[in-house]
Design a protein that fits this description.
Helix content is 34%, strand content 32%. The protein is of the alpha+beta class.
Length: 71
């Protein structure tokens, strides 16, 4: 379950932490890769870079800072 995976990684990383995410294009379509990036965004990640890693699609994601709650 990709949504659960991104949520759990988000819980483990402190704000500002970086996740390098990669998938092979011959197994995962571009559309599916984009859908997974949307799930990562919902889990609190922001894309900070995109590249190819060997032949794989790859992105660097940073966990967003938790906004301060004003009282």
């Amino acid at each position: 379950d990709p949504a659960k995976l991104f949520r759990e990684i988000s819980l483990l990383l402190k704000p500002g932490g970086t996740l390098f995410y990669t998938e092979p294009p011959f197994i995962v379509s571009g559309r599916e890769f984009g859908e997974k990036l949307a799930l990562a965004k919902e889990a609190g990640f922001r894309q900070i870079g995109r590249s190819l890693f060997f032949v794989n699609r790859a992105v660097a994601l940073r966990k967003e800072q938790i906004p301060a709650i004003s009282h």
